[in-house]
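Incident log, support desk, overnight shift.

02:14 A customer reports that sequence design results differ from what the structure should imply. Their input is reproduced verbatim below. On-call engineer (initials T.W.) acknowledged and began investigating.
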């Protein structure tokens, strides 16, 4: 079964935010970091992965991405702060121990959407 991810990038803590969806988080984050694809993230230098959620079903991931994009900035900041209060760049985490975090070793990063189960807030479209 394939995994799908909703993720948030930034250029600095509490800086410009970008919400995206992908079926390969490592590859997509790498593309953003290297500026491979022209667009918003390249223009604003958004290279730091500060949040992600894992889903088993692509339609749920796409729905979550679309709803998150419409949230207020404050809600997005709360979402990031709830699981990554130091705003660490998570790219090294996902490239270093890909097998361990994929299996849920970091519950705060995989809680929403893991195994297709979202929390009540995710179903309602709020943080």
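02:41 Re-run completed on a clean worker. Output:
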């Amino acid at each position: 079964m394939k995994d799908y991810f909703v993720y948030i990038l930034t250029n600095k803590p509490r800086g410009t935010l970008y919400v995206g969806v992908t079926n390969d988080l490592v590859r997509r984050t790498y593309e953003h970091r290297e500026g491979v694809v022209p667009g918003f993230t390249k223009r604003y230098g958004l290279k730091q992965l500060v949040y992600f959620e894992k889903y088993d079903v692509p339609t749920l991931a796409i729905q979550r991405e679309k709803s998150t994009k419409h949230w207020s900035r404050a809600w997005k900041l709360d979402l990031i702060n709830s699981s990554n209060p130091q705003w660490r760049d998570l790219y090294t985490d996902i490239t270093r121990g890909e097998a361990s975090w994929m299996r849920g070793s970091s519950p705060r990063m995989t809680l929403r959407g893991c195994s297709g189960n979202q929390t009540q807030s995710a179903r309602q479209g709020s943080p």
